[in-house]
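Supplementary Data S3. Sequence and structure tokens for construct A.
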Amino acid sequence: MPVQVVAERVGLSPNPCWRRIKQLEASGVIERRVALVNAAAVGLGVTAFVSIRTNQHNADWLQSFARGVQSIPEIVECHRMSGDIDYLLKVVVRDIQHYDRVYRRLIAAVPGLSDVSSTFSMERLKHGTKLELATL
């Protein structure tokens, strides 16, 4: 959204609004400004959620795992979890064959995975990037 529009919505003139946005970026509140691409429109119509279990729970293995995950661009999110699953990955690919290639790269890049289980999204019912700050 252009600074002029933001300024009008919050009741500031554009220059002070721009300075506040820059301060929010400098302080890390605003991480980055991005364009959201429709994955299906660019041929990436399959989303897989990959549950990973491991019996490795040390700093060296975690660094190796993080490097392996970072090296695979189709993995768009990675979360360390509580409960039965150690890690949850979100993978966006063209089709099942593409996913299989990603899976093979993952298990080659990261030793010590004891269970890798995938589920595929049939339909996305809700998606957003907005954080509701009014409830804080």
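Construct B, processed identically:
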Amino acid sequence: MSKPPVLMIIASVLAGLGIIQMTFLIGQSLYRSYEWTREIRVLRGEVHQLRLDLRTLGDVETRAATPDYLRELARCQGFVGSEEDVVVDERATTAAQGNCQPVRLP
């Protein structure tokens, strides 16, 4: 019986280890690709929400200097104009949110 060549056995073991390592690296690359895709999707959602927030803040900023908007804010807080009469209904119920529609500001 002849003895198998030692060099061939070592080469086969190294090739097997290389295949195992390559399989692990391919699996790791696929996992990282999946995670990065998920993170990109989350970040795009956050960027979209931040852009909406910027648009809302821009609208509020442009409206903040107008007298009509300031008058509307004063009415929300219960102020009355100098030429207006105050009529109070004692049986009226108080709204839970006050006089105005709530606006979400970032």
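The CA atoms of residues 8 and 14 lie 10 Å apart. The chain has two helices and no strands.
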